[in-house]
Design brief:
The protein is of the alpha+beta class. It contains six helices and eight strands; from the N terminus they run H-E-H-H-E-H-E-E-H-E-E-E-E-H.
Length: 203
């Protein structure tokens, strides 16, 4: 399946989520930015970790990724991937990033899709698809998009630029000061990301 055919499937899936009269302006399959990410939404039943292991924990984490130490994990993520997003617990970035994580942990491989309409920015995930797309089942899965969240288009700002070794990163800033980043593989065109940014910036 070509990139244009996949895009048509995503447009079809996003269109199914829209209200009457709402028009699609841009669609892109993306990956969530790696590195440090926004704090998770408030979870009263989950105990908060208040201290980390310091330098020793960071060193052990580098030597063995299976050893985890809270703040050490954050330090390694920052060293390797940088910052993929920021936001206080309960912020727009926090809530949306949590939804993306939950979707990614479900059964099967799901593609993340951003859709921009004349009214909203939508965050979605496809039904599970195969590693090598091309089957009829995968085509149907690409058009079967679950809405994970949305925000009014006029409350966000976006641009595409380089970050560290990634030349194709889309950053989305929310009105509450939080933000998220997304990217595509280096071998893929950045055009879908630029189209999303342009659609969000258009009047």
């Amino acid at each position: 399946m070509t990139a244009d055919e996949s895009r048509a499937r995503y447009v079809e899936g996003i269109t199914r989520l829209l209200a009457a009269g709402e028009q699609v302006r841009a669609v892109a399959q993306v990956r969530a930015g790696g590195g440090l990410t926004p704090a998770p939404p408030p979870q009263p039943s989950v105990p908060q970790v208040t201290a980390g292991p310091g330098f020793l924990g960071v060193l052990l984490n580098v030597l063995s990724p299976n050893i985890t130490f809270g703040r050490a994990d954050n330090a390694v993520d920052w060293l390797v991937f940088g910052v993929g997003g920021r936001g206080e617990p309960g912020s727009s970035a926090s809530v949306l990033h949590h939804a993306l994580i939950v979707a990614a942990k479900g059964p099967g491989l799901r593609n993340l899709v951003l859709g921009v309409t004349d009214q909203r920015l939508l965050f979605g995930a496809t039904a599970p698809v195969g590693l090598l797309s091309g089957s009829t089942a995968d085509e149907r899965a690409q058009a079967d998009i679950e809405l994970l969240g949305s925000v009014p288009r006029t409350t966000v700002a976006a641009w595409v630029g380089r970050y560290r070794l990634n030349w194709k990163r889309l950053r989305i800033d929310f009105a509450d000061g939080s933000w998220l980043s997304f990217h595509v593989p280096l071998a893929d065109s950045s055009r879908p990301l630029r189209e999303v940014a342009a659609a969000l910036s258009a009047g």
